[in-house]
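Justification of computing resources. Each target in the renewal requires a structure prediction run like the one illustrated here; the chain below, 386 residues long, is used simply to show the kind of job we budget for.
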Amino acid sequence: MIPAEKHRPITGYLKNLDYFQIAAVFLLLTVGAIFIRSTGLQIDTPESRSFIGKQLIWITVGTGVYIFISALDYRSFGFRAAMIMGYAISVILLVAVLFFGVKVFGATRWLNIFGFRLQPSEPAKLMIITMLAEIFSAPRFIQRRTLCFFLAALTTAIPFGLIAIEPDLGSALVLLPISASIIFCFGIKWRYVLLGTVAVVLAAGFVLMDSFREDPILLRNYQRDRIKTFLNPESDLGNRGHNAHQARLAVGAGGSSGTGIGKGTQNELGFLPHTVSNNDFIFSVIAEETGFWGVMTLLTFYAIMLYTILRTAFLTSGYGRYVCCGIATLIFCHIFINIGMSIGIAPVTGLPLPLVSYGGSFIITAMTMLGITQAIYRQTRLEARE
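Resulting C-alpha cells:
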C-alpha cells in the first residue's frame, strides 16, 4: 500500500486532493465540537466537560486516519486484502460483542477495549461496503451473476443478523439501502428492483402490524414501544416519548436565527437530557441555538460532502465507484434518519449524525470512509493527468 506519487510524494499528494471535501469535512467536525461543548454546559460536571476533550481526541485520531488512508493506492493488492481482512475482523467483533459486550440501556452494542468503548456495528458498515465492491468488481464473480448476488446477500446477511441480535435494528436496517445502492450501481433489471420494493413494503407492513400486538412476534417490546411512540408521540410524553417530544420543541424554538450557542432553553435547562442531546438529538440543539439559517448552513456542508463523493463515483468505475456509492448512501441514511428523529418523521433509532454527534466509533469510521473516497479521487485525478 504505497502512495502512487512515489517520485514526488508531498507535492503530488497535495496537488490531487479534493479540497471541497476537506473543507466540508472539517467544517462539520468543527460544528460538532462546538455543540458537544454546548450540550456539556447544561450540567457543567467533570463528566460533561470531558465530552469535548474525548471528542477532540477522536477527531485528532480520525484526522490521522483520514490523511493516511487518502495517501494509499486503493487499487493495490495490499489495500484490497486489508479491506477483506477488515470484514472478517468486523464479523468476529460482532460475535464477540454478544458474549463480552457492555449492556447500555438494555442493548449490548459495545466492547470495552483498553478503556475505550468500541461499537463494532459502525466499522462493520464500511467493511460490508468494501466487501460488496470487491464481489461486484471481481471478474470471476461477475461472470456468474447468480453466484455474485448470492455472495452479496450472504455478505450482508451475516452482519445484519448479528447486529439485529444485539439488538440494534436501526444499524441493521441501514445495511439494506447500502447493499441496494451498490447492486443498483452494478446493474440490475428493473423487474428485480420492483420485486425488491414490493418485498420492502410488505416487510414494513408486517413490522407495523407486529407493533400493535401485545406479544410481538418479530419485534422486541422496546422496539414495539418506539414505533408506537413514533406514530403517536403524545401518548407517552412522560416516558418513551419525552426525548422525541422535547427534541421537536427545541427545533421549533430556534426560529430563524436561534437563541445563541449555549443558550437554548431545551438544552440549557436540561429538558432535552444530556444523555441524548450530544448524540441522538444534537441536531435539535443546533436547530434551537442557530435557527433556520444555522440548519441550512449545516445541510449545505453535508450537501457539499455528498456531492464530492458522488462526483468521485462518476469519475471512476468498478471497485471505486461501488465503494463511493455505498459510502454516500450510508452517510445520507445517517443524516436523514438522525434529522428525522429530531423533527418527528423517523422513529428513534440511535443513529449518529455524521461527523457531528458525540462518539468515537462512528467518527473514526466516517473519517476512514472519507479517506477512502479521497484516495479514489486522488488516484483518478492522477491518472487523468498522466
